[in-house]
Amino acid sequence: MGEWLYLIIGIAVLVVATTAGLLASGRRKTPPRDTTGVISSTTTQAPPGTSAEAPVETPVETPLEAPAAPLVERPEGTASRLVRLRQRLAGSQGALGRGLLALLSRDRLDEDTWESIEDTLLTADIGVAPTQELVDRLRSRLRTEGSQADARAVLREELLTLVDPSMDRRLQVSGADGQPGVVLVVGVNGAGKTTTVGKIGRILVAEGRTVVMGAADTFRAAAVEQLVTWGERVGVDVVRGPEGTDPASVAFEAVKEGSARGVDTVLVDTAGRLQNKAGLMDELGKVKRVIEKQAPVTEVLLVLDATTGQNGLIQARVFSEVVDVTGIVLTKLDGSAKGGIVVAVQRELGVPVKLVGLGEGADDLAPFDAEAFVDALLG
Known about the structure:
It contains twelve helices and ten strands. The protein is of the alpha/beta class. Strands 5-4-6-3-7-8-9-10 form an eight-stranded mixed beta sheet, with helices on both faces. Strands 1-2 form a two-stranded antiparallel ribbon. Strand 8 (about 325-330), helix 11 (about 340-350) and strand 9 form a beta-alpha-beta unit. Helix 2 (about 80-105) crosses helix 12. The longest helix is centred in the first third of the chain and has 28 residues, at about 1-30. The protein is globular and about 125 Å long. The model is unreliable at about 25-55, about 60-65 and about 65-70 (pLDDT under 50).
């Protein structure tokens, strides 16, 4: 009986030992998890001098994430921008039209009324000669058509004639024979010149064009940095040089870079110092001559602050004598009822207003449209 008892105990011990061995073997085959939840790799054989019971872990390196690319803004499309800006223009310029309509709608248009109409137009910076022309045409038509005349319709037609919708207001941003269009932007400091260059760049990018910008206002470090910021926002490269570099050399390099890369348009910002006309003429004349060793200048845009009135006309005269201005950009037109500057500056230079700036926003620059402008004046 005792022998049977010893045999049963021996069998039980053998079963328990075998089971324990199998469990231990299973645990060694399951790789441990680290604290991040990533399974670490292990080896099944121990290197010399180590215990076979202690597996050697090989750490798994997680690759570093690449830095995120800077976000490039998608500019607002031309159509939606025009709708919004026309509404804003109507809000700021409607006082002029309402004032004129109130005077023209009187039962009796006596000399005092016509004098008030002249004063209203002059206050809006239309200019003496255009004001006299407009008043003469209005008097003639309203006298001839009598009570049948629609004062608003007559005023709209005559204002539209004054603004001249026949002028070619297209931006010449394309070159010939595979060369890029070159747009030279000029104007005094403070008129919004560098900002305008950045905004034009946005418009061209929104239209699917490729652009390079040249920061040739090298005497103002802030202007260079400002243009670089504009370029980064829409993914446009900016060619720059050290502070105080010859502006002509920067302009030359910008056009050279644009030509080499086959871009559609090169925009060149220039210095706007007006200490004396001779210095300005020498500097801008040199910039233009040097640029044209690479490609013809297709557009020279003069940026004017719409709120400066007659002072803006003096600036326009000086720049038109220095370079062949082909178009005008009127900035800060949103906060002023002096929309008549459009007529005055066109008469002064004989070139069209092509763009208007109506605010501080990145997309607050729009092509000038004569009919939309007159409708905005009339509210």
